[in-house]
Amino acid sequence: MTTLPAPPGDTGAVMRTERGFSVISLLLVLAVAALLYFWVLGGNPAAIQPTPILDVEEGLAAGDATACNGNRRELERSLTTWSVTHPGQRPSLDALRKSGFHVPGCPGGGRLSLEGGGVLCSLHASE
Question: Among the four residues 28, 29, 33, 123, which has the most C-beta atoms within 10 Å?
Fold first, then answer.
């Protein structure tokens, strides 16, 4: 191993080249975490509430209701477009299909119907 000469202006001072955390800095972090724990929770582990586990059926039903709402809005837009191109005619889901519009259904199994210019689902209430 060869030793290189010191660069010009080098005073010979030793620089620390180690990287990372010292033991003191880690202890300080633990102390701050302990203080926050006792300050926020009062040192009571029972104060930490577990995350409730959601019911799978409720989650699926909520997803179906959201998708149904989106499908109804899509049908209402299609209905508006169809009404402009077919003035004076009574709209129906079959008429929309025959005109080439996509007519989605209710993912939860409800029946969609056209009522008073809007789309209703037999399973999900209008939101």
Answer: 123
Please identify which residue in the block is written with the tokens 């209905």: 79
- Alpha-carbon distances of 39 from 2, 22, 34, 88, rounded to whole Å: 57, 26, 8, 71
Pair of tokens at residue 51: 């995350």
Other beta carbons within 10 Å of 119: 22
**Strand runs labelled E in the chain:** 112-115, 118-121
Distance CA 127, CA 125 (A): 6
- What are the pLDDT digits (tens) for 66-109? 999 999 999 999 998 988 998 988 888 999 999 999 999 999 99
Q: Measured in Å, how far apart are the chain's first and last C-alpha atoms?
A: 78
Separation CA 100–CA 13 (nearest Å):
83
Closest CA to 75 of 98, 99, 93, 89: 93
